[in-house]
Structure formats: C-alpha cells, structure tokens
Amino acid sequence: xxxxxxxxxxxxxxxxxxxxxxxxxxxxxxxxxxxxxxxxxxxxxxxxxxxxxxxxxxxxxxxxxxxxxxxxxxxxxxxxxxxxxxxxxxxxxxxxxxxxxxxxxxxxxxxxxxxxxxxxxx
Length: 122
Fold this sequence. Notes:
By secondary structure, the protein is an alpha+beta fold. It contains 3 helices and 7 strands.
C-alpha cells in the first residue's frame, strides 16, 4: 500500500481542526462513518467526482493534506470503493498534527484542480 495518503477538505474545515486539535471529517465522512482519504493516483478522480463544483478561493477553497499512512496505524483500513479499487478510510478522528504537508489547491483554466508537482513526495 502507498506510504502517503491524502485528504481533501475545505480550508475552513482544516482551520477549525487545527484550532480544535482534532479533525472529525466532513459531512460526507460523518454520513459514511469514516474519514475518506485517497492515494496520489486516486486524487484526480476524487477531485473530479466529489469536488468539481468547489472552485472557490481563499477560505472557500480546498486544501490537500498529506499524511503518512503508517502514523494512522490500525485506524486506517483499505477498503473497496469506486470501481472496486482499494481506498484508505480512517475509522476515528484525525490528529491534525500528523499532517506532513498542507497545500491549498488552485483551479486551472480548464476548471480542474491543480495538484502539486511533487505529489509523490508530499
């Protein structure tokens, strides 16, 4: 399994998590009972499918959080999701201090989110 997993969330959600010292997930995460993550290879599909309409800037924008999968320990489960691919799901709250990198996502002229060029090393 990949060493790094990623969470996409709003800048406001992440700011609130930093202030509270815990991230419990988005409304979609709460509905599903776990916090959704993606691998680097899964991010383009995740952004296109779930965040295409989220093209705000500033506090309304999105942030990409990179985390070491090993630090999430046994709370991280790899489960089949879209097209049977295994996606990382976190069962429990996330300690925001585990974030290795937080990158605001920009939107390109084609309307798609631009991922960092060094994504594999995030």
